[in-house]
Amino acid sequence: MTTTGKDIPSLLSKDEVVVLVTDSGLGGFSIFSQIAARAKHDPIFSRLSLIYYNAWPGPNRGYNSLKDMDTRVRVFDRALEGMLRFTPHMILIACNTLSVLYERTRFRRRKPIPVVDIVGFGVDMVYERLLQNTDARALLLGTATTIESDRHRSRLIEKGIPANRIAVQACDQLATRIEKGPESDAVVELVDACMDRAAGKLGSLKTDVLAALFCTHFGYSRELIRKSLQCCLPGKVTVLDPNQRMVDSLFEATGGRRHPKTVVEMAVVSKIAWEKEKLDAVSNRVAPGSPEAADALRRYQWIPDLFDIDDMFNE
Q: Fewest CB within 10 angstroms: 16, 22, 140, 260, which?
């Protein structure tokens, strides 16, 4: 089961906390930046150290391109072990792909520290909205690994949602292209192609559609996705993005306790070197909400030995 913010009693008694946010790329940086922004006016700790840990395995070696699910799980297991060097009090997996991999890791079985993954937040959001609107259908959008895992759809069915109210669509390469420019021509082209395929699965019934963004990158292009899908469907399209719910869970975990002020420290670390194009695209996107987070991204630390996986590819 997914851990939620309410399941983390260890945070309730701490004044100084280290929170590590991880993703395979920069999608989860939207969650990181929202935490940084909210901490300024919602001081739940006296000191909050935020670390953004890019778990991308290596140049031209993303999780979705690895040969099979077992390899992806083993690589992420190494990344999780590497996170412990920063002595976090908790880890937020701000990535649906990594969240579905986490369920199968050895790290999860021994669970040395609390880990919160994003899957449950998205599933709960879709479930609640489908209960509110009994005629609506859900479209689950994600990476190839996320959709292949079937984790979100199966959990909705387990909760009692009929399978015929749920459609799924993998949007391969969309996350990578969004990082280079959330509104670029390349993103527009790929979004249109992906939404056209999704619309074909939903059919022509004039019912509301809830488009769930089960990739944290997709939120950077949420309006493009909504408009593109709306052009393909007769019913109203609403986009559901669970990123904000993950942010809220951290602040709810402390049960309403407040401090006069929170001193926020930020660091961004990555095993791979980021292209300036990506850094500029994402930092410019988050700067209006948190200029401090945008600055931390621009000053990120490139640590090639952040976690070691070379031996896995020499077998």
A: 260
